[in-house]
Structures are given as C-alpha cells and as structure tokens.
TrEMBL record:
<dbReference type="GO" id="GO:0004222">
    <property type="term" value="F:metalloendopeptidase activity"/>
</dbReference>
<dbReference type="InterPro" id="IPR000718">
    <property type="entry name" value="Peptidase_M13"/>
</dbReference>
<dbReference type="GO" id="GO:0016485">
    <property type="term" value="P:protein processing"/>
</dbReference>
<dbReference type="Pfam" id="PF01431">
    <property type="entry name" value="Peptidase_M13"/>
</dbReference>
<feature type="domain" description="Peptidase M13 C-terminal">
    <location>
        <begin position="233"/>
        <end position="360"/>
    </location>
</feature>
<dbReference type="GO" id="GO:0005886">
    <property type="term" value="C:plasma membrane"/>
</dbReference>
<dbReference type="InterPro" id="IPR024079">
    <property type="entry name" value="MetalloPept_cat_dom_sf"/>
</dbReference>
<protein>
    <submittedName>
        <fullName>Endothelin-converting enzyme, putative</fullName>
    </submittedName>
</protein>
<dbReference type="InterPro" id="IPR018497">
    <property type="entry name" value="Peptidase_M13_C"/>
</dbReference>
Length: 400
C-alpha cells in the first residue's frame, strides 16, 4: 500500500526519479510515456486523473469552438441506431433477447459523451503552501463528495466517469451499464461534416462498438431487463466461440506469456463483431456511395476502392510498436497483428474487396468463416447498389 501511494504522487517528486514517474504514467495511461522527466506532462495527467470533469469540459469547449460538438454526437447516435437495428441478425440471438437489449438501450442513455452540468472543481479552502498537500486535500474532498452523493442519490453512480477523456478507446462499465466515449477518440483535424470523416468509422466506430457489444452479455447488475439466452442460443454461441477458438489455435499466441488465453475467444468475438458492425455503418453513412452511387477514391490512390480504404485504415489504426515489456502487459488484449488479421479472416467483404483466396492455401477457395450474423452468405454481395462510377475524392490523405 505504501509503495502504491508513492506511485500515485510520483509527479510531485524530483524529475530524476524516472522509474517511479514511469510507473505512474503506466498506471494512468496503461502504456509507457515517452518523456516522464518532463514535469508539465506528468502533472497534466495527475491533475486530469484528479479532476476529470474539468478536462472533459475543456475538451467540450474545444469541440464547440470547432463547431463539431453536435455533429459528433449525431455520428454517435447514428452508430447506436445501427447497432440496435442489427441485433436481430446476430447468429445466436433469439427474438426475446433482441427485445430485451432494445428495451435496455431505450430505457436510459447507455452512451456517455461530453460533460454534465455539475461543477468540475471543488470549492476550498485548501492549503496552497505545498502542491502535494493541495493535491491530497482536493483528492480527499473529491472522494468524500462522491461518497456523499452516492448515499443520497444512486443515479450519481451512473454519472460518475468510468474512464478518462484522454483515453483513445471507449469503455463499457457493467456496474453502471454505460459506455463512456472519450473525446480523444476523435480526430478533429477532419471536419465531421465531410465525406472523409466517414473513413474515421474504421477507428472510432470499431472502438465504440467494441465497448457497446458488451451490453449483449449477461450482466449480474442488470435487474430490470436481464438477458438469459435460451438453450438453443447458448449452444449456437458456444459453437461460434469454438469456431473462433479453432482459429486462435492456428496462431502463435502461446508465445505471449502474459496473455490470458482462456479469455481470448471472447475478446476476438467482441473485436470481430465491432469490425463487422462498423463496416455495415460505413456502407450506410458513406453518403456518396449510398445516395449518389459513387465509389469514393483518392486521386493519388485510384486503385483503392472506398471499401478497400476502410480496411487499410483499420489496419493502420492498429499499427503500434511493441517490445518484450509491452507484450508482457497484454493480458486480455490481442496483439496488434492478430487484432487486425483474425477479425478480417471472418469477413467475406474483405476477401471480396481484395479478391483473396484462403490465406493458408492460396490455390484453394477461402475456407468457411465463423458466422456472427445469420444473414451472412459466402460469396454474396451486400444489398447496397452496384457502384459503377468512381469518385475522384481528395488530392491526398494529409490530415486524416
């Protein structure tokens, strides 16, 4: 406990204690920080951890200054609507489970995005003689205020931030039954009103859906509309997990000693479902394709169709440097190469887009995939209209 307390206040120690500061950064960010010796950066993360609502409000003001706040919220609302409409197509979901999930999603807001109206900073008086003492007093005040609010009103539990707005992945909290979408998930260098922003679905839709699909699981904390799969649905889900497990066994994941191999089929199921839902959202929300029947292409990449670009951006979003230390911290996360390759193996659209054969045997047709959606048919194209006219697109991908 004493060492953990030292890690928590490491930003206030001399810059030379890099190892201790590094542990603090890893505990807050879940990854290493490049320059832990820079006090302004490490203190920034310390204050954000202490007063997350203030940082959320500051980010929201930035969104508003860019005239992007309402547009981004609209994108999220459309993604949730698409998710709700596609639940019925899940291979293992029966009609009752579908109705229960839809009821759960409509009963109360599941997605948390942006700040609430409560004050973000506590009122004093606090000691200003020592930065560390000030930090301690504010932290104690915040904790006491939260406990008092919880005792007075249980709905406060739902409003409490489950994760930081500096994170780049959405997070599902089963206790609160909410998905927190951090503002750092969005790249605001591209206007959300533009066609190009639809290609961000390969990033933020996948990361958002990866959290949202977890509402489909049985939840001990859900009392009003608990999901209880029928025996038939349980068997179908078990068959699907078994199929994904067989695919995992063809990899070299056992060389990652830190991985929880028993959890990986479930992790792969969530990631594959998120990618497939994101592709369906991309087809619907890329308006130049859906409305004007244009195949959006970049002028300097004329050989790549819009659908191929979606998969390329999905792969690029998962590019990351790894080393032995990084691999040792994976636990329940798939390594990047498998986070890309394994879900793509289950998508007919990917094989059709790039005219691939079975990767394990290029001379043979592709082997059957694990079917997550009941209406997926091998070799059949999506019901969207045939794309006949390539769109010139933009001159470059700069700023994407």
């Amino acid at each position: 406990m004493g060492f953990a307390a030292l890690v928590e206040v490491a930003p206030f120690f001399p810059e030379g204690l890099r190892d201790l500061r590094g542990l603090f950064a890893r505990s807050v960010l879940g990854r290493a920080l490049a320059d832990v010796g820079k006090s302004s950066t490490i203190c920034f993360h310390a204050v954000e951890k202490l007063l997350p609502r203030c940082f959320s409000k500051a980010a929201w003001l930035l969104f508003q200054s860019l005239d992007s706040a309402l547009t981004v919220r609209n994108w999220i609302a459309q993604l949730e609507s698409i998710f709700t409409s596609r639940i019925r197509d899940l291979a293992w979901f029966d009609e009752l489970s579908t109705l229960l999930v839809r009821y759960r999603l409509r009963r109360h807001p599941v997605t948390l995005f942006g700040p609430n109206n409560r004050p973000c900073a506590p009122s004093g008086p606090f000691s200003t003689e020592s930065p560390l003492l000030f930090y301690f007093q504010v932290g104690k005040h915040e904790q006491n205020s939260r406990q008092e609010a919880l005792a007075a009103n249980i709905t406060e539990l739902r409003n409490h931030f489950a994760t930081s707005d500096l994170n780049t992945r959405a997070k599902y909290d089963p206790e609160r039954m909410t998905v927190h979408v951090p503002m750092a998930l969005f790249n605001m260098t591209v206007s959300p009103n533009s066609t190009l922003f639809a290609f961000h679905l390969s990033r933020f839709a996948v990361r958002y859906y990866n959290a949202l699909v977890q509402v489909l699981s049985e939840n001990f904390y859900e009392r009003d509309a608990p999901i209880s799969l029928s025996l038939k649905s349980q068997q179908e889900l078990a068959d699907l997990v078994r199929c994904l497990t067989e695919d995992l066994r063809k990899t070299e994941l056992d060389r990652y000693s830190s991985l929880n191999l028993a959890r990986l089929p479930e992790v792969l199921l969530d990631q594959t479902m998120a990618l497939q839902l994101s592709l369906k959202a991309f087809h619907k929300l890329l308006h130049v394709r859906r409305i004007w029947n244009f195949d959006f292409r970049f002028k300097n990449l004329p050989e790549l169709s819009a659908e191929q670009l979606f998969f390329v951006y999905y792969a690029l979003d998962n590019c990351e440097s790894t080393d032995a230390v990084y691999d040792a911290k994976l636990e329940n996360a798939l390594p990047a190469r498998y986070r890309v390759n394994l879900p793509l193996r289950q998508l007919d659209e990917f094989f059709l887009a790039f005219q691939c054969s079975d990767p394990s045997n290029p001379t043979q047709p592709r082997a059957a995939a694990c079917r997550l959606f009941a209406n997926a048919k091998t070799g059949k194209k999506d019901k969207s209209r045939r794309l006949s006219r390539p769109h010139g697109g933009l001159m470059s991908m700069l700023g994407f």
